[in-house]
Amino acid sequence: MLTVALAKGRTVDDLLPLWQEAQLPLPADLDDTRALVFEVAWDGYSPIRYLLAKPADVPTYVSFGVADLGVVGKDVLLEQQKELYELLDLAVSKCRLCVAGLPKDFDRRPERVATKYPKLADAYFRSQGQSVEIVPLSGSIELASVIGLADRIYDLVQTGSTLKANGLVVYDTVHDISARLVANRSSYRMKQREISEVVRRLNEAMAKREAVRQ
Residue range 170-180: average pLDDT? Predict the structure, then answer.
């Protein structure tokens, strides 16, 4: 049995077409049920069990060996720094980790930063020689700047439409983000046949996509 933890939401939505192009088996009812665990047969290989998890929990499932593989955003990996093997940049769910705020605050020295990424935000502002108070939030980060809780936010930006709708602008782009395939270190050795086949098929599917773009 090969267990794969997938980050729910946009990551899995963007991943599934690539997974299908790689001809990796998927459950037929993945989009139509509230179940969180699925098991499917895989011709010539051990069955695959899929776990649908919150993005922030995927590295934990993989690092503890509950899942052999995981697909999660690079932002989560950078923040958590778990001991995992990062096998592939899947080039889906692309976005940016940015510092943003109201235009009127751009020239002000930052004092308070709202974010879902307290470690990354603290490291960024320290690298700029700025000591700030980090305000951890779990969602709707833009609101913190709009209502004056913070004079900066450190968050993911996909299209920028949410920032624009709330009168915010990007001050700096810190990291380009995309979904990554990660592996538990023990599983990578013990289930090398299955994991190598997953990596091979995904690499071929991504190469075909790249060839179409050129």
Answer: 97
Q: How far apart are CA 138 and CA 76, in angstroms?
A: 13
Number of residues that this document lists for the chain = 214
Out of 11-15, 59-63, 171-175, which region has the weakest mean confidence (pLDDT)? 11-15
Q: Do 51 and 151 sit in the same domain of this protein?
A: no
Query: Which tens digit of pLDDT belongs to each residue from 114-138?
Result: 999 999 999 999 999 999 999 999 9
Q: How far apart are CA 213 and CA 66, in angstroms?
A: 37
Determine how many CB atoms are found less than 10 A away from the CB of residue 73.
25
Number of domains present in the structure of the chain = 2
- The amino acid that residue 130 corresponds to is Q
CA dihedral 93, 96, 102, 108 (to 10 degrees): 160
Q: Are 205 and 12 in contact (CB under 8 A)?
A: no
CATH value at residue 14: 3.40.190.10
What's this model's pTM, rounded to 2 decimal places? 0.91
